Amino acid sequence: MNSVSTPSEAHTSFRIDRKLQAAPARVFAAWSRAEAKQAWFSCHDDWRDAGYALDFRVGGSEYNEVSDGDGLAHVFRAHFLDIVPDRRIVYAYELLLGERRISVSLVTVAFQPDAGGTLMSFTEQVVFLDGYTDNGERREGTEVGLDKLGAWLVSPSADAVVG
Amino acid sequence: MPDSQQARLDALFHALSDGSRRRMIDQLSQGPASVSELARPLELAMPSVVKHLAVLERGGLVNSEKQGRVRTFQLVPGALAQVETWAAERERTWRRRFDRLEAFLAASDGGGREGSA
User: Fold this and answer.
1) Is A115 left (phi over 0), alpha (psi -120 to 50) or beta?
2) CB pairs under 8 A between A and B
3) Shared-domain flag, residues B36 and B59
4) Interface test with A, best of B18, B90, B113 (most A CBs within 10 A)
5) Predicted ipTM of the assembly
6) DSSP H stretches of helix in A6-129
7) Is B116 contained in some domain?
């Protein structure tokens, strides 16, 4: 874990679309208000919360720190770049594991009214740094996605993303 | 991460960092090919193709075998899983969060008057 790693960068991106049974204003509020965001953002119930702050405005930031089972700090730090109320949020964020920055991302979340609800589209463009290792997430994810890479690599987007 | 795994990833990322090498991988995803078959669409000289193939081989992405006088290269199945696996893990984290977001929105539903919100 504390071995000195050679700098390396691996880029990729992914998108998640969700149909939500709530109007865009309520979905937007769930992203923009601290109590609401905290209610759903933390996804490890057994990890200890060690700090949270949200300053939701262009130029503002968000900070979330949790300790995992081994007492290692997982730090999420975001900077808001573009906000259109009820419609769009663009932010950059970094993840730190202890002292190591393991990834940096650009995220675009868009909200579209859709039959009384909201179509939420989440796109993350990520660069994984220095042999990225997130020991909190890798255990259950290792079997995922093995077959997708071939298709991704030969798709036109692979050159756009990697090149 | 053990140093050996770190070294393996470094070699993998280096192998993927060049457009010609990615096009060679692209071609090899269609099936095995000889050095000259790989050189043709790239319009590269043989020696530089051989050099690229060596980098790909060190990255664990391709291997080769000699059939008679012709050396044939092929993709190593599953070698590219690492980057995609990281992305899949990240995606999975967000999907879990959005499950919680859905539950949160349902729990804080203001009397079911979504349409007028």
Assistant:
1) left
2) 146
3) yes
4) B90
5) 0.76
6) 24-32, 34-41
7) no
Cβ-defined contact of A5 to B86 (cutoff 8 Å)? no
Pick the residue from chain B with its C-alpha nearest to A146. B81
| Under 8 Å between Cβ of A80 and A61 | yes
Residue found by looking up tokens 């349409």 in the block: B115
Pairing, β A9-20 against β A117-129: antiparallel
Q: Is B40 on the interface with A (CB under 8 A)?
A: no
Whole-structure pTM value: 0.61
The burial class, CB within 10 Å (0-12 / 13-18 / 19+), for A115 is exposed
- Whether B89 and chain A come into contact, CB under 8 Å, resolves to yes
User: B25 to each of A47, A149, B49, B97, B109, how far by Cα in Å?
Assistant: 41, 12, 12, 35, 51
pLDDT in tens, A107-130: 999 999 999 899 999 999 999 888
> Which chain B residue has the Cα nearest residue A162?
B17
Query: B90 vs A154: CB contact, 8 Å cut-off?
Result: no
- Residue B85 and residue B71 share a domain: no
B61 and B92 within one domain: no
AA letter at A11: H
Indicate the number of domains in chain B.
2
The alpha carbon of residue B105 and the mean position of all alpha carbons in its chain are separated, in whole angstroms, by 37
